[in-house]
């Protein structure tokens, strides 16, 4: 693996090299600096984050991450025999914030008025060149003719940081199509039908069984997987085996003021933030997030009148229904016209929610501070400590149930800030 991990690292067992990857070069956290690899998780909580395997890679600081990662991929391919199978996961940091790019790429877009959009375009161009260099390396070292290249974004663009989802609705972090749709392509000499657009329904969980199948293995529903092998749909244009996508159910996010169990036919509280796709239909409940249609930010100054041009989201609503195939821009809400479909999709949410694992947000651990790890982000807990924390939490819950609650203003404040932090973390995720 090369690139951004961002899937947890509080224990060594969570690191990429303990999760199936033979080698790893990259960052463990989110928005690190592209050159210094510093990352702050609040005022004064800063540390270095570039790792080689399970060690801190201090000596690689100063190189622009997109170029560094592409170079590492080329080195891996140069030292690997094309006769041996290879899975290579490259998670570019680009084009996530902070918006940083080498000066020579910025110069190409010097006439672009909006500064954020200019930086974003430069970062995309640099990443495009990195993809080209990796493709060239696949050809040079003999991998290309028997390879499959999958390029995909992980979510919609952040419209406040140079991204654009126009004409789709919403932005990164929302359940609108502008937030949940990913851009991507599959490139391979093994494709049977090339140079076409596929409109097959594909979810990120489908990549695992698809890649296992391509490698000659088998991954069946009996293994408890959520994904499907979608290679026939991609390569041959067949129908996708996937008919549903549960976008999310978030019980922690702010409940919509106008949602209720009654509005959900008595089976689902529509105040809960959730979204699901079944066939052509998409249902959203609760607060799906910022729901405007935001034009591309091309002007130097973003006029308020233009910004407000498409502000049509209703704050007094908690249920939306769209036919996504006919209306991918989510402009015609059909919830009032098709209560039968609303009820059917709410029932699917109920079914999915029955197997949901309870949300657990541990308290912040001061030992995670980089100062206790030589100035770098890294694991701080052991298996034994984890078991002890869970036991203490269980005893605390039992003790609190057995005590008579006392009125405590400080306790109320602590509860308030704990809930506030939970909501902020949920929104950040």
Automatic annotation (TrEMBL):
Superkingdom, natural source:
Eukaryota
* Keywords noted in UniProt: Calcium, Glycoprotein, Hydrolase, Metal-binding
Which portions of the sequence form the region Disordered? Answer: 372-406
Q: Which SUPFAM superfamilies match?
A: Alkaline phosphatase-like
Alphabetized InterPro entries for the sequence: Alkaline_phosphatase_core_sf, ARSB, Sulfatase_N
Q: Which residues form the Sulfatase N-terminal domain?
A: 1-216
Q: Which Pfam families match?
A: Sulfatase
Protein family according to the UniProt entry = Belongs to the sulfatase family.
Quote the CDD domains the UniProt record gives.
4-S (cd16029)
Compositional bias, Acidic residues, is annotated for: 382-392
This protein is called what? Arylsulfatase family member I
């Amino acid at each position: 693996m090369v690139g951004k991990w961002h899937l947890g690292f509080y224990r060594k067992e969570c690191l990429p090299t303990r999760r199936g990857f033979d080698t790893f070069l990259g960052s463990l956290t989110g928005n690190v600096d592209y050159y210094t690899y510093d990352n702050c998780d609040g005022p004064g909580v800063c540390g270095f984050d570039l790792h080689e395997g399970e060690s801190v890679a201090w000596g690689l600081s100063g190189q622009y991450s997109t170029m560094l990662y592409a170079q590492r991929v080329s080195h891996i391919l140069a030292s690997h025999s094309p006769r041996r199978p290879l899975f290579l996961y490259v998670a570019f940091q680009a084009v996530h914030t902070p918006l940083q790019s080498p000066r020579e790429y910025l110069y190409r877009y010097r006439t672009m008025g909006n500064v954020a959009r200019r930086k974003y375009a430069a970062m995309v161009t640099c990443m495009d060149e990195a993809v080209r260099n990796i493709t060239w390396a696949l050809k040079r070292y003999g991998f290309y003719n028997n390879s499959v290249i999958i390029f995909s974004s992980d979510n919609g663009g952040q419209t406040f940081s140079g991204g654009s989802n126009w004409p789709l609705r919403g932005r990164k972090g929302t359940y609108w199509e502008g937030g949940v749709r990913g851009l991507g392509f599959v490139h391979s000499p093994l494709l049977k039908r090339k140079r076409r657009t596929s409109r097959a329904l594909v979810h990120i969980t489908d990549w695992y069984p698809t890649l296992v199948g391509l490698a000659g293995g088998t991954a069946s529903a009996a293994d408890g997987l959520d994904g499907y092998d979608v290679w026939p749909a991609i390569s041959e244009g067949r129908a996708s085996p996937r008919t549903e996508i549960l976008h999310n159910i978030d019980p922690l996010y702010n409940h919509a003021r106008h949602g209720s169990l009654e509005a959900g036919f008595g089976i689902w509280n529509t105040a809960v933030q959730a979204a699901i796709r079944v066939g052509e239909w998409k249902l959203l409940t609760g607060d799906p997030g910022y729901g405007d249609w935001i034009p591309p930010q091309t002007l130097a100054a973003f006029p308020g009148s233009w910004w407000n041009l498409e502000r049509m989201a209703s704050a007094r609503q908690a249920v939306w229904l769209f036919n996504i195939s006919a209306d991918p821009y989510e402009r015609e809400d059909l919830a009032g016209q098709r209560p039968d479909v609303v009820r059917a999709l709410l029932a699917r949410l109920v079914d999915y929610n029955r197997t949901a694992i309870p949300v657990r947000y541990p308290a912040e651990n001061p030992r995670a501070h980089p100062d206790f790890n030589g100035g770098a982000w890294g694991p701080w807990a052991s298996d034994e400590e984890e078991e002890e924390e869970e036991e203490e939490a269980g005893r605390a819950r039992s003790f609190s149930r057995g005590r008579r609650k006392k009125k405590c203003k400080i306790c109320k404040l602590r509860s308030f800030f704990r809930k506030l932090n939970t909501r902020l973390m949920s929104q950040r995720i």
